[in-house]
Amino acid sequence: MGELVFVGLGLYDERDLSLRGLEEAKTADKVFAEAYTSLMPALEMTRLEKLLGQHVTVISRRNLEEERGQRMLQEAKGAKVAFLVPGDPMIATTHVDLRIRATEMGIRTRIVHGASIISAVAGLTGLQNYKFGRSVTVPFCEDGVKTNTPYNVILENKRRGLHTLCFLDIKAEEKHYMSICDGLITLLAMEKEKRKCVISSDSLVVGVARAGAPDCCVKAGFIKNILKQDFGLPPHTLVFPGKLHFMEAGALVTLAEAPKKVLEMAK
User: Fold this and answer.
1) Does 97 share its domain with 188?
2) Buried-exposed string 39-59: b where 16+ CB fall within 10 A, e elsewhere
3) Is the CB of residue 220 less than 8 Å from the CB of residue 197?
4) Domain, as residue range, for 107
């Protein structure tokens, strides 16, 4: 029986790889990696290959989604294959689909988890992880196609008093990454259309840039002020806080430089 091992690379560079992940990749017969579901700012494939002592075959979005990972699955039928992915392996639904298909083909699968933006954001902002509701991606608007899903998710979470984690769209193969500013402008445009008073220039938001990096940037404030903030290089992430516990409010002021007025918003 072959084997497909999903290995999380973490958030920033090849040094985020766990010792277990390193061991699995070193002992694999074939190593694949993808770099389109998330951006690791300082990951260098040549350094990663040197660390593993293995050649790494980088696969594209088309290989994984349109071809449904056939190349990897064929290799894994009779060998040990390691599949390296940014963050935690099973955050992307594409990877879940691949694992299901491998299992159905009789290929053994295992997971080596890695640091994820989902847990990192809670730690960096001081917002309590169990108070996050459904997360959502703010997409690029292409070919005139619009979606109100991000707006609706933020609305529903706010009604329940929950925080909303907003992933900002990336097109890694085109080196095109949505910024916090662009994400906010997109959401404000949705508000202008929907008019349900969900997002305004006075809404509290938190911007996180380059989580896991030495120069990680975390800033909380009202949209009108955050739009003027330079968060630097990608990747960027947005959070719309729900009802704040007093400790969460204190964390935003102390750790994310939120205005002290935020303390008055705590319950």
Assistant:
1) no
2) bbbebeeeebeeebebebeeb
3) no
4) 3-112
